[in-house]
């Protein structure tokens, strides 16, 4: 022992568990009258937001919810969803946010696997939740959320109430001055998020308070959140807990602008009316904005930061967003890394480069978040780093405090994911000389044709350079001679025409011939609720 190890122990005065819940309490005490939530006609201050979250925590405890038990919610981007992100963990429970587009069988699996004790369900989803409960073994308490700002001209109707109590009545049971405890350990679970489950049952990804707290600070840096940002909820909060932004906004006393359905007119109205400064989403949301009808667009004075993940944004989309007044930040991550954990940090010297070179640089995934300790590309067999040559393909791997605890009740999958002391992403990429990583494909999406590896992303990027292409997805199709060849599924922009022959010729002018698609299929490209293309569906369609 050295001199710094003697009589300098941790104690309550100098060591407290990290948790994002303290961000809300600070904002409520420092900026009590600042508007925290906008939802239609509703305006809710930080004072009220905090009090209602404490009511929820108190009510859950009075209803018998105990530490470490699961409280599930099936909610849109509404105030109740924001309150659940705080009130549920304030009760020392674990929040499960269920994807609102799931089928009844998958929901039933999640309720059973998570051993959910209570479920809060928006009446928009009561029918599918009712069907799920009929299939599930779990018998949770059901709470109906009847959104008072549910629009009269909604594209869907409210379902019937299926619970034993309504959400506001539940809150009325709670104490607005509830003295909620910090987690006993920052390693305690704060939330549970299920992976997409494209093969077999989905895996339950467990987040801890420490990781969520660190993501709060990291998001402020990566997204450039200045004081009092105004954040538009185009990203579903059920997706990786909204990339942890439900907790993050309170760090800077920001305003949440709720949005039940992502529509171009509603987004432009919110940006113009509320002074939105930031929003997040997949590239499909960018396409909605730049391809909106002129009647749906609204002018705005501020530059709006759009944080995008998933597929690299095509050059045409980036150019369109810039013209429309949006600054795009490219992020990358997975459910297992609390959402984005990698950011394409823009270098000022790149501003002087031609647009095409800028787009190529912006399409790279980038470098680690400030809260992530290490990020690299490795040979998964030898567990050695690939050379930083921009060419050698390996698996992207993560290490740090914003990596999940593991998969719930699945030690074998957890051990495999953490093999060698790194989280294995399953994504293939290269490491550039400047340390930036660039994805080349998912391991399962690489196309091997005649012994040559073809990156589906490279082929998709070539297709996106055609002015008529709105969405492109490339998968492998079995071939007698070559083993596999690429086939492209394409959606054209409204009002644009292009034939398969046109797109074939375009690809041949941008790619080596063996990389070009052997077939072009014009079809609606299936996507998840967060805008990610469902390649497993396309692979079946390509057979």
From TrEMBL:
<feature type="domain" description="AMP-binding enzyme C-terminal">
    <location>
        <begin position="458"/>
        <end position="532"/>
    </location>
</feature>
<dbReference type="InterPro" id="IPR025110">
    <property type="entry name" value="AMP-bd_C"/>
</dbReference>
<dbReference type="Pfam" id="PF13193">
    <property type="entry name" value="AMP-binding_C"/>
</dbReference>
<dbReference type="InterPro" id="IPR045851">
    <property type="entry name" value="AMP-bd_C_sf"/>
</dbReference>
<dbReference type="InterPro" id="IPR042099">
    <property type="entry name" value="ANL_N_sf"/>
</dbReference>
<dbReference type="GO" id="GO:0016874">
    <property type="term" value="F:ligase activity"/>
</dbReference>
<keyword id="KW-0436">Ligase</keyword>
<dbReference type="InterPro" id="IPR020845">
    <property type="entry name" value="AMP-binding_CS"/>
</dbReference>
<keyword id="KW-0276">Fatty acid metabolism</keyword>
<keyword id="KW-0443">Lipid metabolism</keyword>
<dbReference type="Pfam" id="PF00501">
    <property type="entry name" value="AMP-binding"/>
</dbReference>
<comment type="similarity">
    <text>Belongs to the ATP-dependent AMP-binding enzyme family.</text>
</comment>
<feature type="domain" description="AMP-dependent synthetase/ligase">
    <location>
        <begin position="25"/>
        <end position="408"/>
    </location>
</feature>
<dbReference type="GO" id="GO:0006631">
    <property type="term" value="P:fatty acid metabolic process"/>
</dbReference>
<dbReference type="InterPro" id="IPR000873">
    <property type="entry name" value="AMP-dep_synth/lig_dom"/>
</dbReference>
<protein>
    <recommendedName>
        <fullName>3-methylmercaptopropionyl-CoA ligase</fullName>
        <ecNumber>6.2.1.44</ecNumber>
    </recommendedName>
</protein>
